[in-house]
């Protein structure tokens, strides 16, 4: 008996294209997009499709489940499975404001979690996963951290690395451990808002040092050191948040030499180094005794892994740091840290990172096409810094964008000295589907082309 032909919308599966269940779900989505399938069309029964494809029933079941998760299909009991009507978006807000890694194509997070946690539970003592850990991570967690940091810092002694519940907690603990109330912390004029929040909460003062297209200006750093006797210098030198500038090797060396002469310690917050295209070595690699290096998994893998690594050479400072950390955060959740460790050692973290990198680059190309002459990104990382036409102010545009169902971050959110650039930060990773991201960027581009008065006149 001759086998029934495959449905015309379904291409032949190929091992090199990734998991077969995702190939089937992607083919469904593509068929809906190009009209080969219409809402209300009945799909083949799962067993029939499995036989036609020569795969097991579980593969097709997972494909249909994935398609339902994407709101492509609906079950009608004994009548079978049908193409769903388009979902009406009651909440149309498109998030271009939060910096999160984009979902990589072909990565099944359900499968990653199941396998990772299964391995954790198989190898770890459950009692240890459910109790307090006061040492900045277990020996295996620190070994995994040293492995993760090796591309940035080279071979490390795991004892120099501490595991923390996110970069924000690490920054706050460093400020608390290394400075006194009223101390001055130097930073670039537009910088990570979490730094300002931590400094304000802890009674420290941020002083902004002007930056140019390469980052903080060395001569002005030296001048600020003489004027303010600062306790710390905060730098985010790779794909800087929010400007997306990557500081060159020479500028990094200049700033490090000045800080050394002025006996100024550096907090190098480097969440995007692994996402950048051939970035210079971190400042900490050349000045390990002077620099406290922070790398978080939240920005290059997933925010669900609320784990960051801090490299500190001095054992006495590490002890002070842990005391400071325990005063408000105590520890990284042991289960989360163990999962991060498992993924680093079994290669899942590297595969996920590569997927995020590839998806981020695709999204930058999309942004370059949609925003045309306004795009000024480097083609990598999670965000772009968009200079506004003179007729828009950042906060004014943010309010207008919100009325249009868009969330963006105005420059005021990043201002360290009260003076903000005429710009907004656009994050490219928060919107799950690339098509919806494109739609959001198109809406933003249309808004930018209008005068504020014209936008207000259109609101009724």
UniProtKB/TrEMBL annotation:
Database matches in Gene3D superfamilies: Type I PLP-dependent aspartate aminotransferase-like (Major domain), Winged helix-like DNA-binding domain superfamily/Winged helix DNA-binding domain
Species for this entry: Comamonas antarctica
GO molecular function, one term: transaminase activity
Name of the protein this chain belongs to: PLP-dependent aminotransferase family protein
Keyword Transferase: yes
Keywords: Aminotransferase, DNA-binding, Plasmid, Pyridoxal phosphate, Transcription, Transcription regulation, Transferase
A Pfam family annotated for this UniProt entry: GntR
UniProt record similarity statement: In the C-terminal section; belongs to the class-I pyridoxal-phosphate-dependent aminotransferase family.
Superkingdom: Bacteria
SUPFAM superfamilies hit by this protein: PLP-dependent transferases, Winged helix' DNA-binding domain
CDD domains (alphabetical): AAT_like (cd00609), WHTH_GntR (cd07377)
UniProt domain HTH gntR-type: residue ranges: 18-86
Taxonomic placement: Bacteria, Pseudomonadati, Pseudomonadota, Betaproteobacteria, Burkholderiales
Range of residues in the leader sequence: none
């Amino acid at each position: 008996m001759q086998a029934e032909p495959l449905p015309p919308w379904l291409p032949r599966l190929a091992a090199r294209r990734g998991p077969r269940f995702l190939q089937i779900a992607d083919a469904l989505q593509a068929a809906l997009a190009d009209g080969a399938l219409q809402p209300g069309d009945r799909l083949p029964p799962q067993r029939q499709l499995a036989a036609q494809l020569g795969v097991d029933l579980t593969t097709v079941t997972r494909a249909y489940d994935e398609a339902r998760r994407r709101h492509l299909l609906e079950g009608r009991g004994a009548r079978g499975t049908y193409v769903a009507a388009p979902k009406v978006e009651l909440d149309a807000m498109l998030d271009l404001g939060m910096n999160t890694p984009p979902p990589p194509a072909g990565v099944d997070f359900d499968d990653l979690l199941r396998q990772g946690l299964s391995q954790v539970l198989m190898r770890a003592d459950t009692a240890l996963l459910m109790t307090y850990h006061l040492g900045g991570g277990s020996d295996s967690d620190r070994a995994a951290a040293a492995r993760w940091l090796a591309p940035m810092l080279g071979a490390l002694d795991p004892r120099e690395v501490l595991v923390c519940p996110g970069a924000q907690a690490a920054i706050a603990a460093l400020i608390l451990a290394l400075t006194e109330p009223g101390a001055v912390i130097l930073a670039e004029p537009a910088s990570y808002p979490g730094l300002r929040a931590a400094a304000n909460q802890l009674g420290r003062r941020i002083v902004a040092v002007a930056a140019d297209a390469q980052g903080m200006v060395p001569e002005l750093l030296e001048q600020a050191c003489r004027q303010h006797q600062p306790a710390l210098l905060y730098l985010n030198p790779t794909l800087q948040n929010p400007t997306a500038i990557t500081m060159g090797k020479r500028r990094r060396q200049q700033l490090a030499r000045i800080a050394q002469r002025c006996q100024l310690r550096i907090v190098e917050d480097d969440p995007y180094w692994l996402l950048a295209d051939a970035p210079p070595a971190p400042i900490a690699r050349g000045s390990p005794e002077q620099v406290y290096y922070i790398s978080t998994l939240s920005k290059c893998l997933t925010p669900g892994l609320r784990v960051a690594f801090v490299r500190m050479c001095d054992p006495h400072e590490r002890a002070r740091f842990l005391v400071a950390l325990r005063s408000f955060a105590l520890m990284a959740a042991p289960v989360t840290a163990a999962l991060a460790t498992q993924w680093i050692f079994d290669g899942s973290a590297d595969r996920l990172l590569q997927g995020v990198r590839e998806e981020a680059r695709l999204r930058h190309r999309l942004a370059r096409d949609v925003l045309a002459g306004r795009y000024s990104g480097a083609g990598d990382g999670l965000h772009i810094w968009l200079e506004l036409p003179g007729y828009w102010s950042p906060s004014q545009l943010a309010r207008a964008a919100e009325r249009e169902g868009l969330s963006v971050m105005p420059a005021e959110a990043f201002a360290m000295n009260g003076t903000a650039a005429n710009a907004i930060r656009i994050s490219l990773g928060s919107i799950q589907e690339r098509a919806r991201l494109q739609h959001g960027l198109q809406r933003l581009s249309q808004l930018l082309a209008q005068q504020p008065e014209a936008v207000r006149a259109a609101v009724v």
